[in-house]
Design a protein that fits this description.
The two termini are 36 Å apart. A 6-stranded mixed beta sheet has the order 6-7-8-3-9-10, with helices on both faces. β7, α5 and β8 form a beta-alpha-beta unit. It has 2 domains: 229 residues, 3-Layer(aba) Sandwich (Rossmann fold); 115 residues, Nucleic acid-binding proteins (OB fold (Dihydrolipoamide Acetyltransferase, E2P), Beta Barrel). With 352 residues, it is an alpha+beta fold. The protein is elongated, with a radius of gyration of 24 Å. InterPro entries: AAA+_ATPase, ABC_transporter-like_ATP-bd, ABC_transporter-like_CS, ABC_transpr_MalK-like, ABC_transpr_MalK/UgpC-like, Mo/tungstate-bd_C_term_dom, NA-bd_OB-fold, P-loop_NTPase. GO terms for molecular function: ATP binding. Pfam families: ABC_tran. This is Sn-glycerol-3-phosphate ABC transporter ATP-binding protein UgpC.
Length: 352
């Protein structure tokens, strides 16, 4: 395993700045996820770490060694791509052993190393098959095995589950997590899927337009987003953001908060769907608040249902247990004022 550092990392394509000065320290054995929407610079950052993209400015260090000018094979990293990139004419065993052959390992050692990794990934019965004879999940495991046989210092994953259906994605998330627990190798994982990030990461770095908006554990980022962008990006359904409330902000926040922010008037508040309730909460009276809303529609989501309603001209989603049927055309939504997030005119959090 190895530590990784990005120091003021910049990447330009002509006049277009794609990565805008990223600084990030990744610890030994850490599983860190680069999360963000398409075009935010996360895959470009990963490819610079891999040596597949030139760096415009800044430094990348692996175990405190600057690797900007090192060839990819000299960095002792292994990358798993979104496309499995398996050689169709080779068997599973040959695909996994190919990199070892290029590195000069003899046939006996290659076979032993492949068999060890195949056992870990439960690929042993498949070693003689060709890629076309495998399912999507099996192909992805082969791609992971091909990376693992090299015993790299750092694993890089570039949206490896995007081509799988929902069931297989769940299975592969579990397998990747178990793989990390077994090997303790440093992992840098790129995805736009917040569920992958929340379930896999030790820490998440959320990227937006080429910069890191926030770094923290999944719990920290979910409970304490530092900007409106992060608040809306993490959580399903996305956080309710009520803009330009004016005096209508008063039911949502403490009077002491209104007094404290003074001239920096809060332009919007955020509250998660899960923090709305149809009955009063058993909390201190000064913390309990409610708003009157108008029902728009109800969506059954299995164990829960999403209630879409209107607060004036604002749209709100509340998530409640599917058994809760106390819903009328007009009703009250209750919440704890301590669960409300307040954002300033620059979309940065004031109170959370």
């Amino acid at each position: 395993m190895a530590s990784v550092q990005f120091r003021n990392l910049i990447k330009n394509y002509g006049d277009t700045e794609v990565v805008k000065g990223i600084n990030l320290n990744i610890q030994h054995g850490e599983f860190i996820v680069l999360l963000g929407p398409s075009g935010c610079g996360k895959s470009t950052t990963l490819r610079m770490l891999a040596g597949l993209e030139d760096i415009t400015d800044g430094e990348i260090c692996i175990e405190n060694e600057v690797v900007n000018e090192l060839h990819p094979i000299e960095r002792n990293i292994a990358m798993v791509f979104q496309s499995y990139a398996l050689y169709p004419h080779m068997t599973v065993e040959e695909n996994m052993a190919f990199a070892l052959e290029n590195l000069g390992f003899d046939k006996v050692k290659r076979k032993r190393m492949v068999e060890e990794i195949a056992e870990v990934l439960e690929l042993t019965p498949l070693l003689s098959r060709k890629p076309k004879e495998l399912s999507g999940g099996q192909r992805q495991r082969v791609a992971m095995g091909r990376a693992m046989v090299r015993s790299p210092d750092v694993f890089l994953f570039d949206e490896p589950l995007s081509n799988l259906d929902a069931k297989l994605r769940g299975q592969m998330r579990s397998e990747i997590k178990l793989l990390h627990e077994r090997t303790k190798t440093t992992v840098v994982y790129v995805t736009h899927d917040q569920i992958e990030a929340m379930t896999l990461a030790d820490r998440i770095a959320i990227l937006n337009n080429g910069v890191i908006e926030q770094i923290g554990s999944p719990k920290e980022i979910y409970n304490h987003p530092n900007s409106k962008f992060v608040a809306k990006f993490i959580g399903t359904p996305e956080m309710n953001i009520l803009e330009n409330l004016g005096d209508a902000v008063k039911p949502f926040i403490f009077q002491s908060t209104i007094d404290r922010v003074g001239d920096v008037k809060p332009l919007s508040v955020g509250i998660r769907a899960q923090d709305f309730h149809l009955t009063p909460l058993n909390i201190e009276a000064e913390n309990l608040a409610s708003i009157s809303v108008q029902l728009r529609q109800v969506e059954l989501m299995g164990a829960v249902k999403h209630i879409e309603c209107s607060f004036g001209n604002k749209r709100i989603i509340a998530e409640v247990p599917y058994t809760d049927d106390k819903i009328h055309d007009k009703f009250e939504l209750y919440f704890d004022k301590n669960k409300v997030h307040v954002f300033d005119k620059n979309d940065k959090v004031i109170i959370q």
